[in-house]
């Protein structure tokens, strides 16, 4: 089983009855018994299934809600989270940047990060190097999709991205003309490849833009660059995407509330 905080949490609670049930529910979800977006059985049905009290079932569900595997919808039930494949704003790279409008010099700052226009510059099958193959838990000689994407805001190039996806899991994308790709990658992975991106890890560093990168973003050579490195994982904890996103460091903005 991949190293996964959900697995670790349920295992840690495994000595209790509700922890055991949480682990069994988790195993059912990971095995596909309840796919992402689907409802799990009602609490009463689960109590009958496991031969336990409703309060124990509620505690078990609470463990998986806290860990982000399940979500409660008022008046509808408890559902397996769709993760990031629904195009949730929190997954957007735009949350790291506030770009200035050319007309009025004001920085764009909305409560919900905007969805920039996506331009696929290239998409090709490549042999993954040893490091990249290891990220996807693939062996020597494994292949993947290497995608170059530029993202536009108000007719100006703002982000330049290099994306790697494992093959054969993402092979269906090769059958879709790049001109027909949507603005967001994760809904495409869900719809065409059956891959649900459950969580992602982003790391931000800074460096000068290389000459080719600067040209693609209409910026001077060696302009300061904010580099966001992302690894995205499916519900089983398997890495399904590695991404490098470059943008103007002067537009970098990020805020977090700490309590």
From TrEMBL:
CDD domains: WHTH_GntR. GO terms for biological process: negative regulation of DNA-templated transcription. The keyword Transcription applies. It comes from the Bacteria. Signal peptide: none annotated. Keywords: DNA-binding, Transcription, Transcription regulation. GO terms for molecular function: DNA binding; DNA-binding transcription factor activity. Residues 15-83 form the HTH gntR-type domain. PROSITE patterns: HTH_GNTR. InterPro entries: Bact_HTH_transcr_reg (IPR050679), Chorismate_lyase_/UTRA_dom_sf (IPR028978), Tscrpt_reg_HTH_GntR (IPR000524), UTRA (IPR011663), WH-like_DNA-bd_sf (IPR036388), WH_DNA-bd_sf (IPR036390). The keyword Transcription regulation applies. This is GntR family transcriptional regulator. It comes from Cupriavidus plantarum.
């Amino acid at each position: 089983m991949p190293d996964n905080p959900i697995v670790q949490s349920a295992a840690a609670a495994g000595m209790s009855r509700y922890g055991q049930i949480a682990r069994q529910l988790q195993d059912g979800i990971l095995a596909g018994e309840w796919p992402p977006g689907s409802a799990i059985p009602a609490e009463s049905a689960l109590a009958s299934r496991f031969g336990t009290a409703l309060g124990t079932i509620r505690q078990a569900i609470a463990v998986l809600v806290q860990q982000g595997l399940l979500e409660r919808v008022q008046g509808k039930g408890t559902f397996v989270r769709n993760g990031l494949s629904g195009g949730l704003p929190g997954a957007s790279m735009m949350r790291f940047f506030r770009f200035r409008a050319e007309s009025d010099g004001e920085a764009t700052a909305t409560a919900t990060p905007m969805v920039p226009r996506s331009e696929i510059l290239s998409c090709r099958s490549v042999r993954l190097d040893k490091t990249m193959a290891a990220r996807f838990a693939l062996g020597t000689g494994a292949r993947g999709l290497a995608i170059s994407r530029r993202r536009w805001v108000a007719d100006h190039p703002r982000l330049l991205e290099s994306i790697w996806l494992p093959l054969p899991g993402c092979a269906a994308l090769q059958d879709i003309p790049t001109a027909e790709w949507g603005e967001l990658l994760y809904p495409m992975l869900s719809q065409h490849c059956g891959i649900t991106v459950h969580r992602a890890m982003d790391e931000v560093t800074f460096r000068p833009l290389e000459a080719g990168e600067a040209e693609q973003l209409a910026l001077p050579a060696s302009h300061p660059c904010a580099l966001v490195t992302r690894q995205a994982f499916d519900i089983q904890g398997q890495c399904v995407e590695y991404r490098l996103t470059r943008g103007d460091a002067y537009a970098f903005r990020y805020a977090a509330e700490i309590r």
